[in-house]
Every structure is written in C-alpha cells, then in structure tokens.
C-alpha cells in the first residue's frame, strides 16, 4: 500500500510498504477513505517528539471502512464505516473505566521509554506518533491496523460525508474538551483562545456552543484570524497589538475569565523556558517556546481557568507562577479523551449546530502530501486544514 512516512527531521515521503495484518484477535483492519494532517504531526517533523524511526507511518486523524476483524472483535463487522479516535485505549483499565481514555494504562507497551525520555508517564498510545507512544503505524495511508477495535472505532450510520465527521477523530473533541473543562458560565464568561490553527478554531466554536458571552482569538496569521472572525469572534493579531493590553481593554480591565492555549510548545514570540532544549540541539532550530502559555496566565481573570490543549513535552520552566497563585487560577490540560466525545459531538453535527468542514482549506492525494506538509507548516496559501484522500 501507499503511506506517508517519516524519513528524518523535516523529511516526509510517500512509500510503498506492506499492507498491515491482524496481529491480535482484538484488532481490525480499516481501509482509509479520508485522513488529515494535524498540528501535532509538526512536532514529529521538528524532532520535538523523540523516538521516531525512518519509515514510521504518520497520521492519527483518519476514518474508513472495516475490511477485516480479529476473532474476538464483537462490535464491528466487515463493511462498517467508522471514525477512529487518535488515542488507543483498552477500555477496561481504571483510567478507561473513569472515561480518561487518554490516560489508558494498557495500550502503550513502551511507557517506560516515555518515562525515560519525558520524565513522566505519557498516558495512552497514539496512532502514528513515535515509539515512545507505542510505535503503532499511523493512518496517512491506504490501510491501518486498529488495536482494541471494540473500544475505539465509532460507527457512522448516517449519510454524512467523510469531511463532516472526520474531525471527530481529534480536533473537534480536542477543541471541545479544552472549552468544556473551563466550566464556562453561559451568557457571562469571556473566553480567549491563543492559536487560530485547526484546534483553536474548534476551541473557539466550542466555547460559543457552550454559551460563552464573548470569544477572543489571538494569532498572527491573517487568514486564520479571518476564519475566527467569520464565526463571530473578536480577534487580536499579536504582532500588531500588545496582547495583554488588548485583552484587558476588551474585558473592562478584568481579563478573560478563561484562557486557552491552543498553540503548544512551538509558540512564536519571546519567552524563557527549557521545554525543547533537546529538540533545539537536534534540529538547530530555535523554539521560543512558552509565550502563549505565559500570556494565558498573565491575562486570565482572577479565579479563572487556563486550559491547555496545545502539546507540551519534557520540562517547562519559568512560568509566571506568582500571577497564577495570586489570582487563584486553575489549570486543566492534556491529551483529549476522544472516545468520550465522539457520540455527543456527532449529535451536534447531525443537529446542524456546527459544520466541521469550515476548517478545510486544502484537499490532496498522498503523493501531494509531502508538499502540503510544507504549506501547512509555513501556514502559506491560507492553509488551515489539509484532508488527504488515500485512493485519489
Ligand atoms: P497549528 O500549528 O496549525 O496552529 C498553531 C497556531 O498557533 C498557528 O496558527 C500559529 O500561528 C499560532 N501561534 C504560534 N505562536 C503563537 C502565540 N505566541 N500566540 C498565539 N498564537 C500563536 O496547530 P493545530 O493543529 O491547531 O494544533 C495546535 C496545538 O494543539 C498543537 O500543539 C497540537 O499538537 C495540539 N493538539 C493537542 C491535542 C490534544 O489531545 N491535547 C490534539 C490535537 C492537537
Ligand atoms: Zn491531531
């Protein structure tokens, strides 16, 4: 089959590799009909997430048709159309039983490696996301092996198009969880979202669905800010305005009640920190790391929430803890417990509350994907979200 593979730092290619096979009785094989490139893939490209190996298949946002099931798979049958959460969860361990699928105890056989490289346990395994997160092949390919097939894949039994449901695999639940965990008081609270990438876009719309009185989105890419404006958000270009002043002025001096960092560790700007020292040594790139998170803490209103869907790894230092402590902020963060949200959010799509296709700016084949990785990385050509058709 054809697949997009990691070939080294900042190198992505298309290769022909063997089709995946069932390895365990609880596996299924999915023929992928649509897949997407995510901001999280850029961390792999940068080398910010260690333990990728040449030839590893990328991709964790995908959906398709079940073509083979292991003998212990009960819920799925050949021909089912499914979306697959980006995290792999066993469904039976204590965290899974509590709905904390992204913290699954059993899906990542390499959790000791994650502890050694990241200094802490990493939670569940992920598709296409390094050996530290389990070494499972990803879904920017024609087929994928899905472990724990009775737990993750969610059947789509309506006639919604792939593009309307594809983002249930990651960025819609991720934006929704980031907003939900703020505990927004409907009709009162102001929510600020740093980052107008795909995750930030779904975060802003989720905050609106959860009743935020006002949503402010901060970025520097004009097309991305325009996309947020089209949804009725106020926007701030952090290269043109002093963000902290603008946020105070927009909120009567109080600051936003909740601030969401949908940027993560590759934030532009200037701020001290040690998150990516290793990645900087490896790549020779400079990551001015934690600016958005610092701005979030500095701007948040007293008693508010700083919610962090943006990915951080390793050690991060020099955060304004005095401000956080003084204002009594609460922090919420982490990988998304995607499994929890697919059903309810599919309901919102079916009810017409949101049409997730708004975020798609580019559609491409697997052969075109390496070029599209560059476009997405550079945020050129108005690129916000790339969807790939593995069979085109
Ligand atoms: P993206 O790279 O397309 O978007 C990031 C945006 O942040 C860009 O538009 C960039 O211009 C902007 N930005 C950079 N520095 C900024 C700053 N200082 N202030 C404001 N904006 C700034 O990525 P994406 O796909 O939207 O993903 C965003 C983050 O969410 C990534 O870290 C990704 O790994 C993470 N993510 C997390 C989960 C999860 O489970 N928690 C799931 C998916 C993605
Ligand atoms: Zn993703």
TrEMBL record:
<keyword id="KW-0560">Oxidoreductase</keyword>
<keyword id="KW-0614">Plasmid</keyword>
<feature type="domain" description="Alcohol dehydrogenase-like N-terminal">
    <location>
        <begin position="25"/>
        <end position="151"/>
    </location>
</feature>
<dbReference type="Pfam" id="PF00107">
    <property type="entry name" value="ADH_zinc_N"/>
</dbReference>
<dbReference type="InterPro" id="IPR002328">
    <property type="entry name" value="ADH_Zn_CS"/>
</dbReference>
<protein>
    <submittedName>
        <fullName>S-(Hydroxymethyl)glutathione dehydrogenase</fullName>
        <ecNumber>1.1.1.284</ecNumber>
    </submittedName>
</protein>
<dbReference type="GO" id="GO:0051903">
    <property type="term" value="F:S-(hydroxymethyl)glutathione dehydrogenase [NAD(P)+] activity"/>
</dbReference>
<dbReference type="InterPro" id="IPR013149">
    <property type="entry name" value="ADH-like_C"/>
</dbReference>
<feature type="domain" description="Alcohol dehydrogenase-like C-terminal">
    <location>
        <begin position="198"/>
        <end position="265"/>
    </location>
</feature>
<keyword id="KW-0862">Zinc</keyword>
<dbReference type="InterPro" id="IPR011032">
    <property type="entry name" value="GroES-like_sf"/>
</dbReference>
<keyword id="KW-0479">Metal-binding</keyword>
<comment type="similarity">
    <text>Belongs to the zinc-containing alcohol dehydrogenase family.</text>
</comment>
<dbReference type="InterPro" id="IPR013154">
    <property type="entry name" value="ADH-like_N"/>
</dbReference>
<dbReference type="InterPro" id="IPR036291">
    <property type="entry name" value="NAD(P)-bd_dom_sf"/>
</dbReference>
<dbReference type="Pfam" id="PF08240">
    <property type="entry name" value="ADH_N"/>
</dbReference>
<dbReference type="GO" id="GO:0008270">
    <property type="term" value="F:zinc ion binding"/>
</dbReference>
């Amino acid at each position: 089959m054809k697949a997009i593979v990691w070939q080294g730092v900042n190198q992505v290619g298309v290769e022909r590799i063997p089709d995946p096979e069932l390895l365990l009785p609880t596996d299924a094989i999915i023929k992928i009909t649509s897949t997407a490139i995510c901001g999280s893939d850029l961390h792999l490209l940068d080398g910010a997430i260690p333990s990728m190996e040449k030839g590893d298949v990328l991709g964790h946002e995908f959906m398709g048709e079940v073509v083979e099931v292991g003998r212990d798979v009960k819920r799925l049958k050949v021909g089912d159309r499914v979306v697959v959460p980006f995290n792999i969860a066993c469904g039976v361990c204590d965290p899974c039983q509590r709905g904390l699928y992204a913290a699954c105890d059993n899906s990542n056989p390499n959790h000791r490696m994650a502890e050694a490289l990241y200094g802490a346990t990493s939670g569940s395994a992920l598709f296409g996301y390094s050996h530290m997160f389990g070494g499972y092949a990803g879904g920017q390919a024609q087929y994928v092996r899905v472990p724990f097939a009775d737990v993750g894949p969610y059947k789509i039994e309506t006639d919604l198009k792939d593009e309307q449901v594809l983002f249930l695999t990651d960025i819609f639940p991720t934006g929704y969880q980031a907003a939900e965990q703020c505990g927004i008081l409907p009709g009162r609270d102001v929510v600020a979202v740093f980052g107008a990438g795909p995750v930030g876009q779904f975060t802003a719309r989720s905050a609106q669905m959860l009743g935020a009185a006002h949503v402010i989105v901060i970025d520097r890419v004009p097309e991305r800010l325009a996309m947020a404006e089209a949804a009725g958000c106020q926007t701030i270009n952090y290269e043109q305005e002093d963000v902290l002043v603008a946020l105070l002025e927009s909120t009567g001096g109080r600051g936003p009640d909740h601030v969401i960092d949908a940027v993560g560790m590759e934030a532009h700007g200037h701020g001290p920190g040690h998150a990516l020292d290793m990645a900087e040594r490896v790549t020779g790139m400079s990551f001015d790391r934690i600016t958005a998170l610092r701005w979030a803490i500095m701007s948040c209103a007293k008693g508010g929430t700083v919610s962090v869907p943006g990915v951080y790894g390793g050690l991060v230092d020099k955060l304004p803890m005095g401000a956080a402590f003084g204002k009594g902020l609460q922090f919420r963060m982490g990988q998304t417990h995607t499994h929890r949200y697919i059903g309810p959010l599919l309901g919102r799509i079916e009810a017409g509350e949101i049409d997730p296709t708004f975020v798609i700016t580019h559609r491409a084949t697997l052969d075109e994907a390496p070029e599209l990785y560059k476009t997405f990385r550079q945020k050129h050509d108005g690129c916000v979200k790339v969807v790939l058709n593995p069979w085109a």
